[in-house]
Design brief:
Elements: E1 2-5, H1 13-26, H2 31-38, H3 45-59, H4 64-70, H5 94-115, H6 131-144, E2 146-150, E3 153-158, E4 173-178, E5 183-188, H7 209-215, H8 236-244, E6 257-258, H9 259-266, E7 272-273, E8 276-277, H10 280-284, H11 291-305, E9 310-311, H12 330-352, H13 358-370, H14 381-410
Parallel strand pairs: 6-9
Antiparallel strand pairs: 1-3, 2-3, 4-5, 7-8
Helix pairs in contact: 2-3, 3-6, 5-6, 11-14, 12-14, 13-14
Length: 412
Amino acid sequence: MLCVTDKPEEGNAFGKATLADWQQVHGRLPPLLVRYLLSADQGDWFTRLVAYLLWVKKNAQGPWPMYINMLPKVDELTNLMNYRPDELEEFQSASFAALASQERTQIRDLHETLFSSSSGELKALKLADSLDDTVWGCCMVNSRGFSDVVNGETVSLLVPLADMANHSLSPNAAYRFNVEQDAFEISALQDVEVGTEACISYGCTGKDNRGLMRDYGFALPGNYNDRIPFSAGDDIASQLAAKAAGGTQGSQGRPSLDGWRLMATLGLGGRPSIGRYNLDTAADAARGDSEQDVAQRRRLAAVMSLNPFLRFPGLPRPGSGTAGIPEWSQTELQAERRSIDALLAQCSSMMASMPTSVETDEQLLAAAAAGGSGAGPQMNVRRQQAVRVRLENKNLLLAAQAVLQQYADSLS
């Protein structure tokens, strides 16, 4: 395995010992690389592990070439940093495109200043002849690296074969470095049937799909952490749109929904905390891969997206549902309906801003999977993944529309 200590200045005994063991088995590393890997004032754990991997890719013998050949090639990687400028429009999302562009710029800078064989600080090591080499190394470390604490020392690792374990919201296995056995282990957390895949948690349960695409190159269907960027209506763009539609500045006001009534209508439990609703318990109960669980997580993410607009007047009787909520006047009822309509209009506007429909995206992915021409000649793996991302964004919007419409119908 490849191992670096995250904070050498706080102790580097395990990192040094592991590096010495590696050299004893596989041969000596260049002094410049050793100094960099053990340095407390150069780079960080990420750049050190990338440098280590890039050197191994070019120079190591024994089992390492076989391992390197098993890893994805750069054209197969869908991490955001690997997207080209002409591919960003496939996301149909300004936030995804901006993050991908930012990631690409940062990695290009890192390549030129550190890893490049012609201009980088480590150019004597001939680590990366091209930007693609650096992108590959960075994607591998981002998506396949492990982090653990060994004897109080936080270390980052690349472990051949173990890094092929996939992520699951309901993992049936876990990893650790066994100090007593001096071995990295993946152990079952429960009885696993023969033929069932052993999956671990990547420790990314708090990441939205932007974070997952940045670090791992995949998006989770029904990601509870995704949020719809609803507008409060007080930004300049919304005010100009309202004016163009014949309204006055601020005439619509900020959308506001009765949190108690909405949650009771949807049959959701939980309590607000510091003015915000929390549905983590409900999300934990929907961690499976079934279509039902995916749909439930989308529904919960849609509701959580409404958090900035929820109000919780008073406190209804526990377990009373809508029966414990005071009746509304006609004025209050009309105001609630206007807020629902405003948020539904935002959903429709966001959906309309994306050039393709849900059905078109599904057809594109089906054609790509079948290897047919329906996906188009330029539908490489990055573009395919971008289509999956935008399809998930649309499905989340549809879930929000369904939630809001259900609430609207309950007020009729």
